[in-house]
């Protein structure tokens, strides 16, 4: 049977993830991959998790193995309220929180909640590929604002907001990854955040703040979150996830938003999956209660800082002088820019032939026009693989310049 005529418009708008498709191709063990956004598996706190899971199931069999509330378990919410106050000086109540299946579900739900087909949103250009997927499925008109070494440019955002207003349209939200952005690794300074927040208030929209990497800072001082800067005025919705700072396999994250907005999210989530895993929520709550998370993050920072430093050092040693890259102060990625005449997508099969892989930058741009960038991940590979892989990549670039 041919199902094609039966597919919905939603499916027709959906695109496969360039990263997920690439990971299938480069699964061979001899390929050094800088393509994924994977945490280092040797740092997973597997023993602590095993002990906590056993204890949670033995001591709370009904609560851990039964359906839970859509909003999320009170035990985890209590720990999150404390964590946000301690680490971000953000004061929220349980009504401001929704536990979700990591930030990708949060992105999908946000698109469903706010965007009708054809309505406009603004993102940085480039921006996170998974967010673009979610917004494309919703049928959003995605407008990319220009960026520099310090993230999205407020002047470009304002120009797009003004243009929409002149056309009688409204920007539904401005999507930003302000700390160690995926894919570029850049961080928006606080002064620029204040300007962007003022624009959201002026044009009666909100900033969707995606914050998966914020706690993995190697150096410098963290700017305040958009949510903290907003001061409760309601112009910011923030998403956090445990995938990068704890374990991705738990698929746990949470949304921080005004209580009336959270209630709308809850209705959507009830139609999607009823609730997030009870046992994983309770295990994470216990992990937080025991104070393990901050110690684990310190280990991540130490390891990833060393790998970032090694990647930067090796790039400087092996790459041609016409190649440039970002220097992230934290996170998992940096962004490498080739000369204008080179195409990172066309170069990728040749890199794979040299047994090294990356993600071509074209899919991170809303308009898909820039073709000479690539994203490199430094968290997953070993130090030896980083050096060897960058030498292979440099050789590929030199052969095709």
In brief:
The protein is an alpha/beta fold and 401 residues long. It has 2 domains: 4-44 and 294-399, Aspartate Aminotransferase, domain 1 (Alpha-Beta Complex); 61-292, Type I PLP-dependent aspartate aminotransferase-like (Major domain) (Aspartate Aminotransferase, domain 2).
Describe this structure in words.
- With 401 residues, this protein is an alpha/beta fold.
- It has 2 domains: 4-44 and 294-399, Aspartate Aminotransferase, domain 1; 61-292, Type I PLP-dependent aspartate aminotransferase-like (Major domain) (Aspartate Aminotransferase, domain 2, 3-Layer(aba) Sandwich).
- Helices cover 45% and strands 15% of the residues.
- It contains 15 helices and 14 strands.
- The protein has helices at residues 9-13, 18-25, 46-59, 61-65, 74-88, 102-114, 129-137, 154-166, 190-202, 226-230, 259-272, 278-289, 292-318, 344-353, 383-399; strands at 32-33, 97-100, 120-125, 141-148, 151-152, 171-176, 207-211, 236-241, 253-256, 324-325, 333-337, 356-357, 359-360, 373-377.
- The strands form 3 sheets. It has an 8-stranded mixed beta sheet, with helices on both faces. A 4-stranded antiparallel beta sheet has the order 10-11-14-13. A two-stranded parallel sheet has the order 1-12.
- The longest helix has 27 residues, at 292-318.
- The termini are far apart.
- The mean pLDDT is 95.
């Amino acid at each position: 049977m041919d199902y094609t005529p039966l597919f919905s418009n939603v499916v027709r708008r959906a695109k496969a993830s360039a990263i997920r498709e690439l990971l299938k191709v480069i699964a061979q063990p001899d390929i050094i991959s800088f393509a994924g956004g994977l945490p280092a598996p040797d740092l997973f706190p597997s023993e602590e998790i095993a002990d906590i899971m056993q204890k949670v199931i033995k001591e709370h069999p009904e609560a851990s193995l039964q359906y839970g509330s859509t909003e999320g378990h009170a035990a985890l919410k209590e720990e999150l309220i404390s964590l946000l106050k301690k680490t971000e000086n953000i004061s929220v109540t349980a009504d401001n929180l929704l536990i979700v299946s990591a930030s990708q579900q949060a992105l999908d739900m946000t698109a469903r909640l706010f965007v009708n087909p054809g309505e406009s949103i603004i993102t940085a250009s480039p921006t996170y590929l998974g967010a673009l997927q979610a917004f494309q499925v919703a049928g959003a008109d995605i407008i990319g604002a220009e960026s520099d070494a310090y993230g999205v440019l407020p002047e470009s955002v304002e120009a797009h907001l003004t243009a929409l207003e002149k056309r009688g349209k409204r920007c539904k939200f401005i999507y930003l990854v302000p700390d160690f952005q995926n894919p570029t690794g850049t961080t928006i300074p606080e002064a620029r955040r204040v300007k962007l927040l003022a624009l959201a208030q002026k044009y009666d929209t909100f900033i969707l703040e995606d914050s998966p990497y914020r706690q993995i800072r190697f150096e410098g001082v963290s700017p305040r979150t958009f949510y903290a800067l907003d001061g409760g005025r309601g112009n910011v919705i923030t998403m956090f996830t445990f995938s990068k700072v704890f374990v991705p396999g738990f698929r746990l994250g949470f949304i921080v938003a005004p209580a009336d907005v959270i209630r709308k999210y809850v209705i959507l989530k009830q139609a999607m999956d009823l609730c997030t895993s009870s046992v994983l929520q309770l295990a994470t709550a216990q992990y937080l209660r025991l104070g393990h998370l901050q110690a684990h993050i310190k280990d991540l920072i130490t390891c990833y800082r060393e790998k970032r430093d090694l990647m930067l050092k090796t790039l400087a040693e092996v790459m041609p002088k016409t190649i440039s890259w970002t220097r992230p102060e934290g996170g998992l990625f940096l962004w490498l820019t080739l000369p204008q005449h080179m195409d990172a997508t066309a170069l990728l099969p040749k890199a794979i032939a040299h047994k090294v892989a990356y993600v071509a930058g074209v899919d991170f741009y809303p308009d898909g026009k820039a073709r000479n960038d690539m994203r490199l991940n430094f968290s997953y590979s070993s130090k030896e693989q980083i050096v060897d892989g960058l030498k292979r990549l440099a050789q590929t670039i030199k052969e095709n310049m």
